[in-house]
Amino acid sequence: MKTETGAIQPVIILAIETSCDETSVAVVKDGSEVLSNIISSQIETHRAFGGVVPEVASRKHVEVMTLVIEEAMSAANITPEDLTAIAVTQGPGLVGALLVGVVAAKSLALAWNKPLIGTHHIAGHIYANRLVAELQYPCMTLVVSGGHTELVHMEQEGRFNIIGRTRDDAVGEAYDKVARALGFPYPGGPHVDRLAREAEEVVPLPRVWLEPDSYDFSFSGLKSAVLNVVNQSKMKGLTPNVAGIARGFQESVVEVLVEKAVRAVRAHSAKQLLLCGGVAANKGLREALTARCEKEGIELIVPPPVYCTDNAAMIGAAAYVKWKHEGGIPLDMVADPGFSLEKWSVPAY
Hints:
The protein has helices spanning 43-47, 54-76, 95-112, 121-127, 171-181, 189-198, 220-235, 242-267, 283-296, 305-308, 312-326, 341-344, and strands at residues 12-17, 22-29, 33-41, 85-91, 116-120, 139-144, 149-154, 161-165, 272-276, 299-301. The chain is an alpha/beta fold. It starts with 11 loop residues before the first strand and ends in a 5-residue tail after the last helix.
């Protein structure tokens, strides 16, 4: 942005993320510099239920929202006058949780007379990569989270084309369900990842490739295969080889994700491969994808774990792209739990 004197003025966005069970507020400068990123997690609350309870999540967001906003502003050492716009996750996500963030963002936009930017949650995960590196287009993104597993081709900045997606369970869902079957508490993914890397034996499990030219994924059959192995062991009066099962499961998941991502990069002549989403914090996946990309000569961008799980800094990074191409949106914007990533794309240029 330029001032009346022609000086370049930074774009400073206050971003709010409440799509699931983290209440997060961040202040991001020019889409890449994080001035603050405050996250209030609800993991301990939901652990007692074995998963996220939507009504409880919404109430927790209401309880801490004001405090998290104040802490983010204080940590960034800014005032409302310094802000360019207010961004918020519009969707997808839990509708009650989204509503808390949307109402808070609208209130700030109205009170401080700032533009509002409705932001797509998955676009946020993708642009978390811009917080650590400059993106080059065209690029390919492997999205792996609790609710989404997708391959997204980006020909231009802010333009999204989903070329592959899960047909049933997302990777994160599969990890949590397998973890539960193996006796681990919620969230189970980190437990499976740790045990898989420590295991000396492996229980072989199937790989689901689908059609030869497909970039889609399917993990429900793999989850069922794990349950069969566990149940068969118990029926025989044996203790399931939990470590070996965890390793077999992880190796199956990782091999399919890595192979399809690399194939997509080659087929679309992508300059970079981006990894994002909560499961991007999985060490087994990060190590396997890093090794394969080094072998193939593919530039891999992976955010640090704090930007993989839900956070508002990623929302600020994506909102900057939207602001640059389209500006703000009307205050009658509504939360949309089924928000389309492709429809959120900026106009072609």
